[in-house]
Amino acid sequence: MKRIAYTLAALATAIVLVLASCNKEEEVLPRVGLAKDYLAVRLEPLTFECQLEGDSYRWEEQSYIPEGEAAPKELNTTISKKKKVVAVFDHVGIYSMNFYYNEGKEDAIKLSFKVKVEREPTPYSAYISDVLEYKPAPGYFVNPRIKGIKTFDEKL
Fold it and tell me: In degrees, to the nearest 5, what angle opens at C-alpha 3 toward C-alphas 2 and 8?
């Protein structure tokens, strides 16, 4: 009786191992050096760089979800075809980006990632808020007044 139980257990184990070995293995992608998500500040540069050598690269903006909206806006814009790219985002929201990498084969490897763009900590202004240092131009109020010649120093 024990012998039949051991035989059935061994047969069941063999079947499970055969079925498990028939699973299709996932293709392992090379380590490109890109994160899944990025955080950026509006109007400040963000650098992306591929860590692998290849024949061609392509960075593109796929879509953009503005802050406070739910519907994405399609962009489908190629940013660069170089290994390293510096991107500046001018709107607050979430950008969906794609990176295509090709090692000379027919099919390119496609990696998708998102960039969340936040507002800058201090809002930009078109006006001067502080004068840190003032240095007059050469000769401006430096030379003494020549006697007998009228100047317009008083009006300035």
Answer: 100
